[in-house]
Amino acid sequence: MLTINRHTFKHGIHPPENKDETNGLPIRQFSFAPLIILPVAQHIGKPSKIIIREGQEVVRGQKLAESDGFLSVPLHSPASGIIRKIANVPTLSGKMTTGIYLEPFPSSTQEILEGDPIDLETATPEEILLGIQEAGIVGLGGAAFPTHAKLKIPEGKHCETLIINGIECEPYLTTDHRVMLEQPDDIFMGIRYLMKATGAKQTIIGIEANKQDAAEFLASKLTGKEPISVQVVPVKYPQGAEKMLITALMGKEVPSGGLPIDVHAVVVNVATTAEIGRLLPHGRGIQERVITITGPGVKKKGNYLIPIGTPLRYVLEQVGVDESISEVYMGGPMMGVAVGNLDISIVKGTSGIVVFNQKQVHRSAQVYPCIKCGACVDACPLSLNPSKLGILAKFESYDKMAEEYNLMDCFECGSCSFVCPSHIPLVQYFRLSKSIVRKRKSKNV
Amino acid sequence: MFKQTLHISTSPHLVKGTSVEIIMRNVVWAMLPAAAFSVYVFGWNAALVLITSTLSCVLTEHVLCRLSKKRSTVSDWSAIITGLLLGLTLPPTFPLWMTFLGGVIAISVGKFLFGGLGYNVFNPALVGRAVLQGAFPVAITTWYDGFAADRFTTINSSLFAAPFMKPMVDGVSGATPLSAFKFDGVVTDTADLAFGFVSGSAGETSAILILLGGVYLALRNFMNWRIPVSILATVFILSGIFYWIDPSKYPSPLFMLFSGGLMLGAVFMATDMVASPITKWGVILYGAIIGTLIVVIRIWGGLPEGVMYAILLGNAISPHIDRLIRYRVYGTSLKSS
């Protein structure tokens, strides 16, 4: 069933979408780079433990590293080839981490290794969760949080509603849009696994009105026998944030400091869902993902299926970029991270690559004092007071920020910085303040 | 390929493209029709007062920035707003040296002493005007009738009064509609008030043009429209109640709306972003308090006009309103089930 929902969350912003250049382009397979570089820390939690040696030949889909504890996932080989070395590799955050250098065999058929399939009919919820972990699946929306850990319902709680997040509110990105149009069967198969794993009684697929075609397409695939519905919500950033999406679809608020399960819901990204539906029946691991490569600096814009570990420099060479590129973002332009080193690799959490050249960077160097215009207050989806928080941050009143002004609820969506006429880097202030508050807390405990 | 240096910055990497400068510049544009009309009504006299007040504010801001070894903040246009606003609140024949002094006080005491743009507790223009009112009570209540035949040929000699000499009051001085009502019981026609064919401060006269500027700012989202709406509605309703009780004793609500500095104050002064509350309900309360104070001062106070003091008092309590009225933070005051 397709329903048009006019209700949404409070506040929020409308940044220019810029999705039209890529949302009509089908997903295309990317070639293997001559050297693939795989960091072992691609997810939130403990890095994977390497189980291969330098010089070893590996098959596509083979496990290169296994999970180290519950909050960890294994890493699979994206190609058949030879392990050239195991050494430090640069990452997006600037830190170095252990990584695997893999040289694919150019003449290999690149057939994918199959593992133990997880049978939807007979598998228990625990077996499905284990299967999801073994497939190396993490949140593909960008957070890269191990999906099985998110799906594990805590003792004493229960899940009623599974929400499939097809919102993709970040400007420029169209990966989820293409996945919904091209992989409906994988998505529905994934939903079946997820419903069984969580015990959810119904599923809502949430899609923004700028992807009406995807919503209608998915709704047309519904048989009516399963409790799955598609809901279209008005376009507004940051609707893809779990809490905002739950409010838009269910009219409920997740308690401050709580999780979606506190309102009996679990939210999973639509591309992650498709991956689960595709990999689990074959017991395979994740080796590639869909990435939107776009922005004014890119020549061959599009949605590409790129092997995990492909070096960013190789990707940019393949699609072609302007001479004058000045900024490259991994993820969308609202919450993505600016790249300072093109030698980093595509990881599981990379949802997009946006390239700007000098002309498009219209950042004003001039920061004015806060004039209390209230634009940020009317933009914050959590109804925080960024103006006041910003002033408190300047005075280093971090404890007051956390205790009286709910600093720790901020999820850094960037709406406040986006609207600020004084160009105050509010999100950066809050990021810093949050880490200081966290440090102080851990010291006191 | 990739010869360029990569710039790194923190998210978000997109900005809306507004700036303090754009907002301030638009406020200036919005005030220009009312300012131009006052020049039309009062001639070169009003023009000189407006130019002097603006120059004085800009100069003071520039000098103070230089003295404190900071980059000059004149380019953010906020000093121009203060100057124009101050000029619009003064009688068109106000001695220029007093006007200049008002500008110096507005910027130095009203703005710089508090820490500059963004930190002022009160609207700086009103601080300047309040000091002038205390220091020169006669000059600031000496009005001059508009549409004098010689307004574009001669300049009133009181403008050039030497400092600390008794100002020469020259020409025909007319009572403002509010003082005429308060002290003589004379009611001015509302249409004359709305279109500005009355005596008063340079910018007190054309309610319609001021409203037009306000509508422009509200549409462009450069002004919180709730503030003027709340003030005007409160004044209208409160004075309406009194008028209904005894129309012979109290002025009509329409007269209240269109007389004196109410329009100028409600649209351009009370809306100073820095000195007004930040939430929707906060500004409505703020407007209601200012509106109530205006009616109270006008009806029972010793002065014919109360807009300035009402707004200054409103400014003073605005931080407290922000402490009192906040949005409920998402997910709070809910029990986790």
CATH superfamily of the domain at 2-24 and 122-282 in chain A: NADH-ubiquinone oxidoreductase 51kDa subunit
Q: Judging by the overall fold, what is the CATH architecture of chain B?
A: Orthogonal Bundle
Please indicate the percent range of residues of chain B in DSSP E strands (runs of 2 or more). under 5%
Give the termini separation of chain B.
56 Å
- Counted beta strands of chain B: 0
Taken in chain order, the helices and strands of chain B follow as HHHHHHHHHHHHH
Strand content of chain A: 15-25%
What is the first-to-last residue Cα distance of chain A? 50 Å
Which class of chain B in CATH terms?
Mainly Alpha
Q: What is the radius of gyration of chain B?
A: 21 Å
Structural class of chain A: alpha/beta
Number of helical segments with 4 or more residues of chain A: 12
Determine the fraction of residues in helical runs of chain A and give it as a percent range: 25-40%
**Cα gyration radius of chain A (Å):** 22 Å
